[in-house]
Amino acid sequence: MIRMMRHALHTGRGALCLRSFSETRGEVIEDVLQRTDSARLTNEASLYVHWPYCLRRCSYCNFNKYIPRENNDHMMTECLQRETETLLQLSHVSCITSVFFGGGTPSLAHPSTIAAVLETVSRQANLSDTAEVTLEVNPTPVGRSKLEDFFHAGVNRFSIGVQSLQDEDLKVLGRDHSPQQALLTVAEARRLCPGRVSVDVMFGRPKQSVESWENELSELLRVCDDHVSLYQLTLERGTQLFKQVLEGEVTLPTEEETAEMYLCARKTLHQHGLLQYEVSNFARQNAVSHHNRSYWKGAQYIGVGPGAHGRFVPVGEGGVLREARTQTLEPDIWMREVQQKGHATRRRIQLSNLELLEEVLVMGMRMTEGINHKHWELFSPQLGLHEVFGTSSDVQELLQRGQLILDERGLRCSWEGLALLDSLLPALLVELERRVSQRLQEDEHAKGQTNRTSNTR
C-alpha cells in the first residue's frame, strides 16, 4: 500500500443501444464488447520517453536529470530508438495511443531525435496520424526557437513549464527564463498547435500570498490556451530549496494558505471555462491530456530512457501479468546497457491482483469522473465497487460526509472530497486489501471443499 501511495501518473453508448435486442443477443454482444475492452488492455499502450539532460538544476527539483559533460546527443538518440524498439517488441502491443517526451528538458534535444523515435514507434506498432504527441518545453529563447522544428518532427501538443509569472519567484526557483520569455513561448506554441498547448504553473511558492496568486492567475488566463496544470511546490530532501528552508533563508506559505490557493485556483479556472477533470488538471473545449488520462485509467504504458517507469505485460517473454518496470537511472550506464542488450531495465516487479487494483483505484480517483463500474470490472470481474466499498463503515462515513460518491455511475470524489483525496485514499486502500484477501480465503476454502468432495467419490 505504501508503494502504491507513492506511485500516486468506452462502450457506454453501444451498451445502451444493445438493450433494444433480445436479452440473449444483448448479453452476447455485451460480452464481446467487454472482451474487446479487456484485449485492449494488453494490445494498446502509451509511450513515455525520458530525455535526462538539463542545462541547470532548479532549486526545488529532485527528478532524474543530469547536466551533460559532453555532447552525446547522437548516441542518446540511437539508444532511445533501440530501447523503444526492444520494449515494443517485448510488449507485443499493436497500437501506441500517445507519446510523451518528458525530462529533464526534452526541448534541449534536437528535433531530429524526436522524429527518429517517432519513426521507430511507427515501424513497430500503429501510431495514428492523430495520436497525441506531447513535448515538454522550457520557455527560454532557445526552446521557443525550436518549436516549429519540433512541430514538423511530429509533435502536436506542447506542455510549457511557465511555473511563475513573477521574476523574483523564478530566480528563487532556479528557473532560467523570464516571465516575458514564457509568454512569448506560449504564444508561439499556440500559433503552431492551437487548442493543444498546456501551461504548467506552480503555487505555494516562497513569500506567495493568496492575493498575489489570484492576480497571477488572472494574468495567466489572458494568454493561456485550453489546458492548465497546477502543481503545489513540495520540499524534496537533497534539493537546494530544502536546505534554504531548513536554514531559515526561505519561508513557504502555511498549509492553510496553500489549501486556500488551490481552492481559489479551482474556482477561478472554472469561471473561465477551464473545467477540472483531474486533481491538478483543467481544460476547456475538451482539450484534456489523453496521454496522462491513460495513466489515470490504468492503461499500459511503456517507459523509455534513463529512469523511465513503465507498466505493461511482457508478452514477448511469455508473460501474462503486468509488470512495474524501471530503467537504469544514470545516462552513461543506461546507454551502455542498451548497447549491450537492447534495453536497460534495472528493476521489474510482477504486480499481484491486489497491487494492480490499488493502482487502478489510486489513479482513477484522481479524476473528477472517478471509476465507473464497467471500467472497474475489466480489472476486477469478481468483486464490484459496491461489493468492495459498499459495506465498509469507514467508507460509509466518507459517503455521509459528502466527500465520496458511490452510485450507479461508480465511485468518485465530490468537489470538496477531491481537494482532500490524499486523506481519503488510506480508508479505500485498507478496505480494498481486506475484501481482496477475504475473497482469496473464500476461494481457497471453496477449492478445498471441492477437492474433498472429489476424493470421497
UniProtKB/TrEMBL annotation:
One of its GO terms (cellular component) is mitochondrion. GO terms for biological process: porphyrin-containing compound biosynthetic process. Its main location: mitochondrion. It holds the Pfam family HemN_C. GO terms for molecular function: 4 iron, 4 sulfur cluster binding; coproporphyrinogen oxidase activity; metal ion binding. It is found in: Mitochondrion. Belongs to the anaerobic coproporphyrinogen-III oxidase family. HemW subfamily. May be a heme chaperone, appears to bind heme. Homologous bacterial proteins do not have oxygen-independent coproporphyrinogen-III oxidase activity. Binds 1 [4Fe-4S] cluster. The cluster is coordinated with 3 cysteines and an exchangeable S-adenosyl-L-methionine. This is Radical S-adenosyl methionine domain-containing protein. It comes from Notothenia coriiceps. The gene is rsad1.
